[in-house]
Amino acid sequence: xxxxxxxxxxxxxxxGAIAANQTEGAYLEDGKGLTTVDLLPTGEKRFPIMLxxxxxxxxxxxxxxxxxxxxxxxxxxxxxxxxxxxxGFQSLRLSISWARIFPNGDDxxxxxxxxxxxxxxxxxxxxxxxxxxxxxxxxxxxVHLVEAYGSWKNRKLIGFFEKYAKTVFTRYKDKVKxxxxxxxxxxxxxxxxxxxxxxxxxxxxxxxxxxxxxHHQLVASALAVKAGHEIIPDAQIGCMLAAGMTYAYSSNPNxxxxxxxxxxxxxxFIDVQSRGEYPxxxxxxxxxxGITIDMEEGDTEILxxxxxxxxxxxxxxSRLTSTDPKVQENTTSGNVFGSISNPYLExxxxxxxxxxxxxxxxxxxxxxxxxxxxFVVENGLGAVDxxxxxxxxxxxxxxxxxRAHMKEMxxxxxxGVDIIGYTSWGPIDIVxxxxxxxxxxxxxxxxDRDNEGKGSFNRRKKKSFDWYKQVIESNGENLE
Length: 480
Hints:
Helix content: 25-40%
CATH architecture: Alpha-Beta Barrel
Number of helices: 16
Largest sheet: 8 strands, parallel, barrel
Structural class: alpha/beta
Number of strands: 14
Radius of gyration: 21 Å
Shape: globular
Strand content: 5-15%
CATH class: Alpha Beta
CATH topology: TIM Barrel
CATH superfamily: Glycosidases
């Protein structure tokens, strides 16, 4: 592919990334069913539920559920897309809410109102020349599938997901070329309710359950790839990893081995989706931990014959590990992936390590491993943004973060890494997936909404808005 003098290829897709459950709101409007995220409140109950301790299959009185209104993108998408177009977006990564299409997940027929909403949304993007990059499952499962079937514990979800995928592929075959199956599929191991709608019973072997659910998702992903290629012959269908290189704290071989094993926890999913088979190290891990994967006849052929076209990944930070108990005491506070604090790196307000060089390392690592095109579908800085006396947000810290990461991404491209595009996370302020907060802001566009759900929803441009516009106009040449 021809490159501009700055290194980025011509046709590189610049844009932003959002998720239905963090933006749309309208949580029961037009026939939509409850999703798992609709049962995630703010406050102290949130994290235990994310780990699989769900107290109720209905919203509880006295709790605030930020997904129920989010930033009201459902009613304001035209306004928001116009702002994205003003920045020059060539792509927008977004997700379809499964429960808007099949409210219960096992419905005989899809919900036409839900299908029409995404028709209208894709038409609006097309009007502005913005390519949709669509995730089928972004941390939401219809609640009925959790309550009635045990979510991805149950093999029946493969069939429900395949039906959902075929429905949207058929409906949007002329409007969407780029697809992703599961968002950050490796998150299943760390936040099992978020990643797979898993709710654990007392005494249940959680590790066994997680890896069996992972197998079901991997087969479902492969069947979605199969269906996508059959229904949309020119489609590009990818997987997605929550990525970030794990460094060894020291040259102690035990630390180096531990770092490799930590990386393999995540690579496992992409190894299967990209290479089409379970890696040998997973077989050893299952044996050592007494895990037995229940596979049906034909599963191995499905996985082998329907691998992904590209690797989507998020990058926010690198990780650090050690086998020394004293070193392990110094951990970061905000990273879902437990990590030792890196003395060479700064942290965000939420304790996330800021490591631009790690972005280049991670991109090279993924490309060396899979030799398939990469798509950076999340990267950004969550921070508290304050309005000044003029009602403006001077978010120079965000510009600095993004500039440093984009420079390293450019170096990765110059290293020979094939990168399709870059959609920064949260181009407009959205509900935080991890904390449910609004004050943890990522956007180029400020949304008047607070942690308690108060505010006008009005949008206003931050300083980073015009900066990112210049980046896109120059295809990454102007990063200053």
